Automatic annotation (TrEMBL):
<keyword id="KW-0560">Oxidoreductase</keyword>
<dbReference type="GO" id="GO:0016615">
    <property type="term" value="F:malate dehydrogenase activity"/>
</dbReference>
<dbReference type="InterPro" id="IPR010945">
    <property type="entry name" value="Malate_DH_type2"/>
</dbReference>
<dbReference type="GO" id="GO:0006108">
    <property type="term" value="P:malate metabolic process"/>
</dbReference>
<dbReference type="InterPro" id="IPR015955">
    <property type="entry name" value="Lactate_DH/Glyco_Ohase_4_C"/>
</dbReference>
<protein>
    <recommendedName>
        <fullName>Malate dehydrogenase 1B</fullName>
    </recommendedName>
</protein>
<dbReference type="GO" id="GO:0016616">
    <property type="term" value="F:oxidoreductase activity, acting on the CH-OH group of donors, NAD or NADP as acceptor"/>
</dbReference>
<feature type="compositionally biased region" description="Low complexity">
    <location>
        <begin position="522"/>
        <end position="531"/>
    </location>
</feature>
<feature type="region of interest" description="Disordered">
    <location>
        <begin position="511"/>
        <end position="531"/>
    </location>
</feature>
Amino acid sequence: MGIRYVIAGESQCDLFAETCLVADYLAQKLPSFCYDRIEKPVTEWMPWLQKINQKNKWHHTRSPIVWKELLMAGSKPFYIGSASEFLEYCYSYYKFDVYFSPLRFEHLTDNFLQFQKKIKQETIALDRLDNTILVENSTENKVTICISGAGNPLALFIISGLLDVKQNIYKIYIYDEECSQTSMEFIEHECNYVGTEYLGKLVKYVDKIGVALTSSDLLIILDYVPFQSTYSIGQWLYKNKKLMENIAIKINATATPKLYVVLPNLGPACYNATIIANLVTKINKNNVVVVTSDIGLEMAPVAAEIAEVPLRNMFCPPVWGFVGINHLADIRTTIHRYDAFHPYERYVKVKNSSLCIGYLTPEMRTMEYLMFFDETLWKKVGDRKRKDTERRLNFHKAVALLNLVRIWLFDPNPNYIVSLGIQCNGSFGLTFSGVFSQPACLLNGEWRPASHYMMPRDPQVKISYLQEIAKIVMTLKKTDLQQVVAYTPCTLECCDAAVGHVGCAMDRRGSGTARGGGGDTIGSRASDFAR
């Protein structure tokens, strides 16, 4: 069992400094020698010494005091004495003999204090160096995220969700070419106010996206051109194409080769992602994905209500298609967890038994048998989407994007299946050379089609049709599919009212020029028009 020596004394005591010097020398020469040093200010020394005397029933009166104890918690201290007793103890136990000259050690106290101060400074410097190394190592394990189009209201909810996993995030850069600097600085201030417990600015506004892309691991693109009634389909796609080409140029110029690019379901999302994937040369085009599971999240509560299935036991419906142009959310291949009951034989034979009557086995089933005869799903989903449109914001898009970021960057698991717009590789019979929404899984850091998943079973929409539409859309020109002019068909009541107004007007004209016969002729023409 090891022994530890404890040396306590006043900070201005020469004998205390001499005793510590001897103990330090012995600790350097003898590997088994261990000591602790307790230094008390002059004003605190006597009260502290009185407490030690009362606790251990000692009668020590001056500085320093030395005792020994075993190297274990709660061990009993054994009194040695003052400096002279400690030196005698060292001589008898370690055969250590030393002579202290008064002149030589006249300023030992000051020197010893300076020595201890220097040791403390060196310890602080080493701690700072260790902390710097730890910060650098922790920074290497953290990710940097850049959000383009941060003026979109959806960006605030995305940033708020990212701050929940701030221990894994080094920096969030926000950028928007269309918004003013004042607006972006306001967003920066508000977001940093949420995370006030962190040192430095976690969210930072940049006026040039190239500065952020040089160190970013993930780029979230919220830029898109919304459709307007004055646009033709070709013109709308053309404007989005030009916007994506500009972003692709910036990616090729400044981004790192390992950059991930994510687009939420805004505008012609799969079309925009296809444009970027075809133009980028510096990054892997398989790292350009579109979050499409928000479409399934929209309909999941309605489907759970109709099928009377707890929403917590239901998985997100798979989403197929060229999202932003067309899509299919297949409720029939949606999986839910079902607890199947298997009764024992005595359940049938014995009535009112107090014993266990059976057991439950969890199973994974599709919802096809629950939704086969229902025709109200899409009407209810449409009504809910109409209400969401009135609220102007769709939180499903932010939730779906944050789930993807968590799975992709922070909690990768190849068993997860997520609906994503990704590059087709022939799985599910999809040969489209672009981004197409389908069930996907994460393999070696890249999203690939989950080829083992079921094909859609919707009786009305086939994915081959969705694929053909995607191919056609990619070939559209600016002047194709001209503006759709709203047309309201005329009803019979409208025709009768219009004929009445025309007849009255013509009668008035006839009465002013030729009465009698002229009026009859006009009236007959009005009747002919009515017929």
